[in-house]
Design brief:
Hypothetical protein af1432, rod-shaped, mainly alpha
């Protein structure tokens, strides 16, 4: 079994394995990465005039290097090694030849052979070198899909930085072509990671350096929503004032009518006329009560969560001034906390508006029913 034959057999085995075990969540550690490593090994091997057997050994190891992430994401190297052993068991290679291929994956860093060094140079020069800008977002996406949770850019940067710090190129050809790229990538990652650590650990003055702005669409949404609900509350209060004024006047007139020289009014007026007047008086008082309830300052009683208590005065006045400023400083540096506070305040406005409209609707309904019943009673009194 010559070198080219073993490589073809490995390519067919790996391709068939990925067909039977699709892993869409592996955006970084996948077959595409293995194939790119195979090409880089070919480039480095020919650039160093290495024997064909050494190049093929490294390429076979590279083909199986990412399978382990689909089998056991926490211990991928061991899983890849077991899968490679299963494949090598189907070949006619000698035991020492199989060991050379396995060492590229399992024991290559402890006692590197030529094939192991070639494989490690291919990984470093491609993944940590000219392919870094591509693999940074892919690795972050993969972590999000595997962990089923949001992963920040700092996590992927820190992982690549830890890898690039302990990486070195072995061959002179690889050093001449890719050492500069590796050094530049290491410097950039170190600067980004250090900046993140400093930002997390620094003690800043209150409201210092706050510059992030939400998108125009988000600003428009909250601005329009708050203006709309505020206008509706204003309209509701105006309608409530109208009902309060009208019913106050009616109640005053009706009470005066019934109490002023009551005996004279009672003897001179048809007793049946007094009944609709009393009905209208009761309706006016009921309508007045609900109109007052609608316009009365009665804020929602539910308490906000800690990150939602900085937008509305009814919550933040419970805090001391210094605590309020500290929490506000923290919130303004966190876009999600800002949106949580604004959405909670918008929801509170909706609750206030809902209460006002309910009471105002009852006030108008009571007034309308009382007015209609009064008119009907007067008609019955005079014509029947």
């Amino acid at each position: 079994m010559n070198d080219r034959t073993i490589l073809k057999a490995a390519e067919h085995y790996v391709a068939q394995w990925y067909l039977e075990h699709p892993m869409p969540q592996l955006a970084f550690h996948n077959m595409a990465l293995s194939q790119r490593l195979v090409k880089r090994i070919q480039e480095l091997g020919h650039g160093q005039n290495m024997p064909e057997s050494v190049v093929v050994n490294a390429q076979v190891a590279a083909l199986f290097s990412q399978i382990g992430f689909g089998l056991n994401y926490e211990q991928p190297v061991e899983a890849s090694g077991r899968q490679l052993q299963e494949f090598l068991a189907t070949t006619s290679l000698k035991l020492d030849e199989k060991s050379l291929i396995l060492d590229c994956l399992i024991n290559g860093q402890e006692s590197p052979s030529e094939a192991s060094e070639l494989y490690m140079d291919a990984w470093a020069s491609h993944v940590l070198g000219d392919g870094l800008s591509t693999y940074l977002p892919l690795y972050r996406l993969e972590l999000q899909l595997v962990r089923q949770e949001a992963v920040g850019k700092s996590v992927s940067r820190a992982w690549f930085y830890s890898q690039i710090k302990k990486t070195k190129l072995h061959s002179n050809f690889a050093k001449a072509k890719y050492q500069t790229i590796l050094a530049e990538n290491q410097a950039n990652l170190e600067r980004q990671v250090s900046k993140k650590v400093a930002k997390d650990g620094e003690t800043t003055r209150l409201f210092g350096g706050i510059s992030r702005q939400p998108s125009r669409e988000i600003q428009t949404f909250f601005r329009t929503s708050f203006e709309y609900h505020t206008k509706l509350i204003g309209i509701t209060d105006n309608k409530a004032r109208i009902m309060i004024s009208v019913n106050s006047i009616l109640v005053s007139i009706l009470i005066s009518l019934l109490t002023y020289k009551y005996r004279q009014v009672a003897t001179s007026m048809n007793p049946m006329v007094i009944v609709p007047i009393l009905i209208f008086l009761i309706a006016a008082v009921g309508s007045l009560i609900f109109a007052i309830l609608s316009s009365r300052p009665n804020l929602p009683s539910n308490s906000a969560q800690p990150h939602e208590q900085l937008f509305s005065f009814m919550d933040f006045v419970k805090l001391k001034k210094s605590d309020y400023q500290k929490q506000l400083d923290v919130m303004l540096r966190d876009g999600s906390a800002i949106f949580a506070s604004m959405s909670a305040a918008l929801y509170s406005l909706g609750e206030i508006l809902d209460r006002k409209y309910k009471y105002l609707t009852i006030s108008y309904n009571v007034f309308m029913v009382g007015f209609v019943v009064t008119v009907v009673m007067f008609v019955i009194t005079y014509f029947f």
